[in-house]
Amino acid sequence: MMGTSKGEALIVDGKRLDGRKFDELRPIKIEAGVLEQADGSAYVEMGGSHVLAAVYGPVEMHPRHKMLPDRVVLQTQYEMAPFSVPDRKRPGPDRRSKEIAKVTKEALESVIYVEDYAQSAIRLHIEILQADAGTRVTGLTAASVALADAGIKMRDMVAACASGKIDDTIVLDLNGIEDNTGQADLPVAYAVGLDEITLLQMDGLMTEDEFEQGLKYAIDGCKTIYELQKDALKRRYKNE
Ligand code: UDP
């Protein structure tokens, strides 16, 4: 959620509080195939946001009345661990987690060869182990690698990151303080090879020019993340 009040400065001497440049991502770590029992998995860190994604399937669709005759159903769960945030998060789904699961599902279904798995389900679980803003985009980045690791046929992989507005300045990849007290947040998921945006949301206000700048930052950020996703998959299959 975007803050509304102006507190401490978030940009000092042209730098952000954590020393980053305006168009700089937080340190990123991506690992593919981190879980033994799931068909595919990935672990991703974007700064202080740490996320695990696991994929089961394709499996038979249950409940059967939700089965689709001509395409797969990507059953998506986004869950924040109770210990992922400073104030213990009550376990179980809430409006926010349902919304994030829905946009995540849609962002990924647009790259999966959905007709190839008609009448089946693919189960995707995104677990936020530690949250410091940008968990939906970190979850998407992890989910995409987990799907690839599970061998799910896709037209491309989706990389995701958010840009935003703090102290009237457009910056890439907000951290927790920036997200809490900033003015806008623009999460983007982008399939780099296809040049397709598969998720675009905005919380807060930006002018048209600011939006263009924010989108450019986010797309460039996604290009960097996409390379790291591919590296993680290559490392995973070299070690087999
Ligand atoms: N957050 C929290 N408790 C909650 C939900 C969110 O502390 O119940 C924090 C968490 O750091 C999260 C941030 O607020 O990453 C921003 O949440 P938002 O809904 O904007 O989604 P996100 O940026 O994580 O995709």
TrEMBL record:
Protein family membership: Belongs to the RNase PH family.
Entry GO terms, CC: cytoplasmic exosome (RNase complex)
Pfam families: RNase_PH, RNase_PH_C
Coiled-coil ranges from the UniProt annotation: none
Annotated Exoribonuclease phosphorolytic domain residues: 24-152, 156-220
SUPFAM superfamilies: Ribonuclease PH domain 2-like, Ribosomal protein S5 domain 2-like
Alphabetized GO MF terms: RNA binding; RNA exonuclease activity, producing 5'-phosphomonoesters
GO biological process entries: gene expression; nuclear-transcribed mRNA catabolic process; rRNA catabolic process
Subunit structure: Component of the archaeal exosome complex. Forms a hexameric ring-like arrangement composed of 3 Rrp41-Rrp42 heterodimers. The hexameric ring associates with a trimer of Rrp4 and/or Csl4 subunits.
Protein name (record): Exosome complex exonuclease Rrp41
